[in-house]
Write a structure and sequence with these properties.
Helix content is 27%, strand content 32%.
């Protein structure tokens, strides 16, 4: 069987000692909205009103349609910590994007983000050569977190989030070879 023409699995269950990522399902809306309804989560995001129900409904619809979105659970307290997703797999360049990530404030500054990204990057590099991360130009907090993973800013681009207007984003990238070298230091 030739596996090279098959699309990669963008929604496996991923787990390490800190977090568990499970595929997002329609029935997860209420639980995820409880996490997302905190306005401070979105203060550095172009969609500052994503905590409002109609705006979050659009976000959630895009997450479901992406077929690459996850719920993130913190295993220490067995709580829903946030969400993230893979999207825009490009077979010809073997590039995937990670984004739309958010966490409840109680998990900021903990190992949850780094552990989540490590799981996602390890999985992505089982089929991809490059991983890109789109971060709003005004989201300094996320830029710093991504740079700590070894991501390099490669460009700036106007990006329209699902059903929203375009906003300036910084495009960061991690190459498989660089990740393979870095994972020894995690």
């Amino acid at each position: 069987m030739n596996l090279t023409n098959q699309s990669p699995d963008l929604q496996p269950i991923l787990q390490n000692e800190v977090v568990k990522l499970v595929p997002l399902r329609s029935e997860d809306f209420e639980a995820l909205y409880i996490v997302a309804s905190d306005p401070l989560i979105w203060e550095q995001h172009p969609s500052k009103n994503r905590y409002q129900l109609p705006v979050f409904e659009n976000f959630f619809k895009g997450a479901i349609q992406s077929k690459g979105a996850f719920l993130i659970y913190d295993l220490a307290c067995n709580e829903l910590a946030g969400s993230t997703r893979f999207y825009d797999w490009e077979e010809t360049t073997k590039t995937i994007i990670i984004g739309y990530t958010f966490f409840a404030r109680k998990f900021w500054g903990t190992a949850v983000n780094k552990s989540t990204k490590k799981l996602m990057l390890d999985h992505a590099f089982s089929f991809a050569d490059k991983v890109q991360l789109h971060v709003a130009a005004i989201n300094i907090r996320s830029q710093k977190a991504i740079e700590k993973l070894g991501a390099i800013k490669i460009s700036e681009q106007a990006v329209a989030y699902f059903g929203e207007k375009e906003n300036l984003n910084f495009i960061y990238q991690i190459n498989k070879e660089d990740w393979d070298l870095r994972t020894n230091s995690f």
